[in-house]
Amino acid sequence: MPPLAALESPRLDWQRDDTGEEAPRSADFDDVYFSRHDGRAETEHVFLGGNRLPERFASWRERRPFVIGETGFGTGLNMLCAWACFNAHAAAGARLHLVSTEKFPLDREDLARALAIWPDLARHAEALVAQWPEPVAGVHRLRLDRGVTLDLHFGDAAERLALLDGRVDAWFLDGFAPSKNPEMWQPELFEAMAARSRPGATFATFTCAGVVKRGLKAAGFAWRKVPGFGRKREMLAGEVAAPTEDARRDGTPWFTPPPARPSHRVAVIGAGIAGTSVAAALAERGVVVTLFDRECPGAGASGNAQGALYVKLAAETNHQSRVYLAGLLHSRRWLSRLDPGQSLWSPCGVLQLALNEKEQARQARFLERHPLPTGVVEGASVEQATERAGVDTEAPALDYPQAGWVRPRALCQRLAETPGIAFRQAEVIRLTAECDGWRLLLGDGTTLDVDQVVIATATLANGFPQTRTLPLQPVRGQVSRVRLAPDAPGLGRVVCAGGYVPPPLDGWLTFGATFLPNDADSGVRESDHLANLAELERTLPAYVAVLRDGGADLTPSGLEGRAGVRAASPDKSPYAGPVPDAEAWQEDYAELARDATRIPDIPGRHHDGLWISAAHGSRGLSSAPLCAELLASRICDEPLPLEQPLVDHLHPGRRLIRDLVQGKHGSAAAGVGNSS
Ligand code: SAM
Question: What CATH number does domain 347-400+474-565 carry, 3.30.9.10, 3.20.20.70, 3.40.630.30, 3.30.70.330?
């Protein structure tokens, strides 16, 4: 996959047209973003008309969203026009999913300036500008409106479309003219489009260049010349000629997703951050959700009054870091939409202190290898860290301005109240596959029939036979908190080292948490208070001294605590995906134990309609909302919000394959859940 780095900004010239309006022109490519005479009418003619969108929107009756794919997002004019056209023509309840690639994203101010030309798109532009992501390579999911989603795939069009996990109904083949930007109009682009087309997918483009006609034809599109816009005599429109196969995984057939099935009623088991975020993501898509928990929402490990929204990224880029960074940026946008008033969270930023030379060297290596925008992460000197924290830190740091803290318990409660979710306080004892769905047996002896089920019960997932062999390790974590005097000084950032210390909230300073693998006890312990106090003193000694001077009782007897049991996977990445049929995998992929290069061409068999989101460890606030989108998107047959290799990285069956290759399949079959 391409490096995790900031993308280059385009150099723009602003030119006035005959009416006095100004429009952007690319100084790098010497071409316009849209026609200076009537960009709007051109978009409507070429891309909307060329794909017959008004008629297709009007007759769209599928439960899944209509999907448009685009090369070259630019100012977003095409996509905003498609959204306005959808609103004008589609039936109530129909949904639209926009996927667009962009290698040189405009900055937020330029985007707003370019879109200001179209007053009747002001509402649409505002939603886009408000959520406009940092220029980081990767997928950025924006919820533009009820039922309208935009996935921005930042990076090169051909590269990004080859990584897309999803299929498209209509393509907007846009870009600077082939003569001005020949690098984009390559065979790989047309091939990636064809491979990600639904049967019958259409395309339209403003150009009739030979390289485009040849590329489209070679990739399997049929094209015809149709009248162009304004002074352009002709343009191309057409459709994919041969239906493409369903998404098979070359070289990793076990990750082939199960076929889509009806998803009208879904049960979600577990009302922590993993379960409530999945339930809300499904309910927003019109699914009828029953959310189960033995206790109330947010009662388990997600039940702290305050928790850190943070990530710790590896010095060397790996898939786990990619997932967590995408997750952090997603959580930030998601929380802004869910709670614009910030009663449940604060984007105050997080400082990851480097308290010793080893960590300083690691952070330096990280910054060298990850030239990310400063709006995402930057190095902070001791002085800068001190100024931003508001107290003496005595150490340099990595500063994540997008991160912060959340009220996890209140967040779970809010999510569980999403319209479309029925919460039931009950234990699910057994899950039985029926011919067209699942039957849940509840603790009171009653049953419930649903189409699909999501398990989000952390380590308790091992209690169901279908997920018994999934390696899940319990990790006990206790937070401590101390009452502060009303005039006690605050903190400007969450400060992390071995643990985390968020700014005081409601008169309490919270700090922690302990991390005790293979300990499933949730009683509050003095030894954990002592460990948290030692870590607090190590992280912020000057702050501790000030608080003590102010009368804070920083001794175990002066503290309150709360302990929870989190779940971790052996590789410390979450599980988010379909539940594999472990016995079938042992049988189908047994050959891998003898020779890992002999890959049987058998798609992975799964427990149809059974899903899991678990093993979020202590970073669920960063990972669970993105995993929730991933599961809801897969269940509802939509494009996914992560690149395919990252989707596979999260697949709950990954350890089964690893164990098979390493000859450890006996232990998995015997249900040994704690292999590491
Ligand atoms: N569709 C846009 C709109 O509605 O405003 C106009 C697109 S503009 C003509 C072309 C866009 O393609 C620019 O934003 C440019 O940065 C982008 N682009 C150029 N080369 C690219 C590539 N290889 N991959 C993805 N995007 C690219």
Answer: 3.30.9.10
